[in-house]
Design a protein that fits this description.
This protein has about 100 residues and is mostly helical. It contains three helices and no strands.
């Protein structure tokens, strides 16, 4: 049975394959060291979650952000589909307007 940890690892691997095809999964050789300033309360909550999951704080932050990154392509697909539908409606109304001029 898959665990939350294995789900996050799979998502992380998928993101790496899509955005960094030459990177090997979760080996740390392609990690970028970044500094983030967090409010103390947020850091404490993340640190507690990290301890519960057996992660470092940085790995817990990655685990929390990964699902958000997976949602972005779906949101973009929906936005593009809505834009295309609106564009199609615009063209159809333009054609109808032009056709009415010819009558």
């Amino acid at each position: 049975m898959p665990t939350l940890e294995s789900d996050h690892t799979q998502i992380y691997d998928t993101i790496n394959r899509v955005f960094y095809p030459s990177a090997s999964s979760m080996d740390g050789s392609r990690d970028i060291n970044a500094q983030v300033t967090l409010p103390m309360e947020l850091y404490q909550v993340i640190a507690q979650r990290a301890e519960t999951h057996g992660h470092s704080v940085s790995r817990e932050i990655v685990a929390l952000l990964t699902p958000l990154l997976m949602q972005i392509p779906h949101e973009l697909e929906e936005e593009l589909a809505a834009w295309e539908a609106a564009s199609d409606e615009d063209w159809m109304s333009m054609e109808a307007m032009l056709a009415s001029f010819g009558e």
